[in-house]
Amino acid sequence: MHADDAGREGLSGGSTLLTEAREADRTRPYAEGDPILEVRGLVKHYPLTRGILFKKQIGAVRAVDGVDFDLAAGETLGIVGESGCGKSTVAKMLVHLEPPTGGVIRYKGEDVTKLSGRALKAVRRNIQMVFQDPYTSLNPRMTVGDIIGEPYEIHPEVAPKGSRRQKVQDLLDVVGLNPEYINRYPHQFSGGQRQRIGIARGLALNPEIIVADEPVSALDVSVQAQVVNLLDRLQAEFSLSFVFIAHDLSIVRHISDRVGVMYLGRIVEVGTDEEIYDHPTHPYTQALLSAVPVPDPSAREHRERIILHGDVPSPANIPSGCRFRTRCWKAQERCEREVPLLAVPAVFRDSGTPARHDSACHFAEEKRVVPPEERREGPGAAGEAQPHPPDEDTPGSGGTDEGGGEGR
Ligand SMILES: Nc1ncnc2c1ncn2[C@@H]1O[C@H](COP(=O)(O)OP(=O)(O)O)[C@@H](O)[C@H]1O
Ligand code: SF4
Ligand SMILES: [Mg+2]
């Protein structure tokens, strides 16, 4: 049992209620293993214009430039990449906050980019987002009850007026906050607690998919594991499918079934947890892994650090051929001419080893960067049953911390 789950047995009433509600809402049952979400050739280009009165397009910011992935029902897909790689733009397109420039997002087999009106509203309900920054994403003038219950204004069918207060209190309970705090304001909570409020709001409509965009990046390191634990537990409890975005591979390692590594608008390598962490074949993934903190000093000494030079190039000016070539230590002439496709590299096609997974590199090679026994001990080790301190990042909030989940 996770530390996050400690003492929560008595709180399962709310969760059962939500699960039942969701099961009743389902119109189309899904066979196990069917992808709930299929993303194909997803593109978002922002036009670059010049001129004030007569705007002339002079180029485009290719924020997302052809992203493909599947999300199985009940699966957690981690998406990782440096800042500016297009992760948030993918997230916004998945939850319909941004229209794609091209490509397909199929939810249960239906292309939702073509939907409008009532059909779109129904789909949007099932795909919810948890935002990166709990300090700016919650309206400071609204009570926690109003924030979490706000989605019911748009979808009153999920919770008729008379039942809303109880529903919101159930949700507070589910995310480890005291249901009596329903009338408090965001500033009365710590960062971790605010993110729990954001998560409760994400759950309000009983969604099937949660897109969490760097949900712990803005939080204190001491609180990050608690929130990751909470998401992990909720994922299992509500059979949620998760897209979990992070800029650091160490955050998603314990929560993800599969991980996609993104670079400059594309996924460059994707595979299971074991394939990506123990058998990475793309130089970018290997470089990211070499930057993952290793707690054991002797292991740290023996580990090879791959230093990436320079910054991510501008998405308005993507390099020809392999988009990673300007920073890749293995780049050759072919890399400048030919775009490597995201597929199993020919050298591994018949290998039968975990190196046999999709990697967009002409010269894919296995390189174990982090020994497997170490990678389970990292600071973001969400799965460990160690007692966590309660959220401690409250700036003099009048003792609201006791409502913070594990500490309660
Ligand atoms: N509305 C916008 N107009 C122009 N460029 C944008 C817009 N939103 C994002 N971008 C650019 O798209 C790229 C990807 O951004 P983003 O998806 O936020 O990356 P990430 O979340 O991985 O840090 C960045 O270069 C960013 O500056
Ligand atoms: S295709 Fe070439 S430049 Fe791109 S990652 Fe592979 S070796 Fe590096
Ligand atoms: Mg982002």
UniProtKB/TrEMBL annotation:
<feature type="region of interest" description="Disordered">
    <location>
        <begin position="353"/>
        <end position="408"/>
    </location>
</feature>
<dbReference type="GO" id="GO:0005524">
    <property type="term" value="F:ATP binding"/>
</dbReference>
<feature type="domain" description="ABC transporter">
    <location>
        <begin position="37"/>
        <end position="289"/>
    </location>
</feature>
<dbReference type="InterPro" id="IPR003593">
    <property type="entry name" value="AAA+_ATPase"/>
</dbReference>
<dbReference type="GO" id="GO:0016887">
    <property type="term" value="F:ATP hydrolysis activity"/>
</dbReference>
<feature type="region of interest" description="Disordered">
    <location>
        <begin position="1"/>
        <end position="29"/>
    </location>
</feature>
<protein>
    <submittedName>
        <fullName>Oligopeptide/dipeptide ABC transporter, ATPase subunit</fullName>
    </submittedName>
</protein>
<dbReference type="GO" id="GO:0015833">
    <property type="term" value="P:peptide transport"/>
</dbReference>
<feature type="compositionally biased region" description="Basic and acidic residues">
    <location>
        <begin position="355"/>
        <end position="378"/>
    </location>
</feature>
<dbReference type="InterPro" id="IPR013563">
    <property type="entry name" value="Oligopep_ABC_C"/>
</dbReference>
<dbReference type="InterPro" id="IPR003439">
    <property type="entry name" value="ABC_transporter-like_ATP-bd"/>
</dbReference>
<dbReference type="InterPro" id="IPR050319">
    <property type="entry name" value="ABC_transp_ATP-bind"/>
</dbReference>
<dbReference type="InterPro" id="IPR027417">
    <property type="entry name" value="P-loop_NTPase"/>
</dbReference>
<dbReference type="GO" id="GO:0055085">
    <property type="term" value="P:transmembrane transport"/>
</dbReference>
<dbReference type="Pfam" id="PF00005">
    <property type="entry name" value="ABC_tran"/>
</dbReference>
<comment type="similarity">
    <text>Belongs to the ABC transporter superfamily.</text>
</comment>
<keyword id="KW-0547">Nucleotide-binding</keyword>
<keyword id="KW-0067">ATP-binding</keyword>
<dbReference type="InterPro" id="IPR017871">
    <property type="entry name" value="ABC_transporter-like_CS"/>
</dbReference>
<dbReference type="Pfam" id="PF08352">
    <property type="entry name" value="oligo_HPY"/>
</dbReference>
<feature type="compositionally biased region" description="Basic and acidic residues">
    <location>
        <begin position="20"/>
        <end position="29"/>
    </location>
</feature>
<keyword id="KW-0813">Transport</keyword>
